[in-house]
Amino acid sequence: MATCQLSNASAHDRYLKVYKLIKERDKQVASAFNDFRRSTAVLQLAIMRRMKLLKDEELQRFSEATQNRIRAFESL
Predict the structure, then answer these.
(1) Residue partners of 32: CB distance under 8 A and separation at least 6
(2) Pairwise CA distance, residues 36 & 42, whole Å
(3) Per residue in 57-69, pLDDT tens?
């Protein structure tokens, strides 16, 4: 059940839940796309994979070693 569909909650409570959800999702997106550095690139790519934003075909553009490191994060 989506948090904004709680029929017994007031409009204000539903608003607060939606606001919290948006804030959480914004953090998730930020962790994948903000502050690119070589030291965090593999982790950010793994986050993108978890979010289903990086397809297999796109992953194949990277070296075998990089692909293996990204897939290692997926198993965690």
Answers:
(1) 44, 47, 48, 51, 53
(2) 10
(3) 999 999 999 999 9
